[in-house]
Amino acid sequence: MYKDQANGDSILTLIKETADGFGHLLADHIKLARLELVADVKNYGRQVGLIALIVPILFIGYAILCVGAATALAPWLGRAGGFFLVGGAHVVIGAVAITMAVRRLRRAQPMSESVEEMSRSMETFSPTRVGNGAPSPSPYSHPSSRG
Q: Which is deepest, 50, 97, 121, 147, by most CB within 10 Å?
């Protein structure tokens, strides 16, 4: 009788330790996600800040270049034709550049490490499936309960 009670106590202890370990695992996943999110936000912030510094300089130079190109084309196309040609070319180039930038942003996967780690943990704790889709028998279940 004492052996059964000691065995029951050890099983309860194992269950408590498992639950405690699972709690620590979830807490670690949350910490990882938080750290990864902060790192991603800092990285995006730096990139946006750099773009914000470059854009005004780019616009000034771009405007001067466009006026010069339109003026250079004026003898062949007329003043308006030169400006329309230069402006139209820049609209097309800008549309292509924006399309490429949007595609690049869609490929970015923020917090990919956290998602991968959480998926790995969930695979560990989910029941394994056999070929017919039914859960496989637990190696810890009693032989008579396997049917």
A: 121
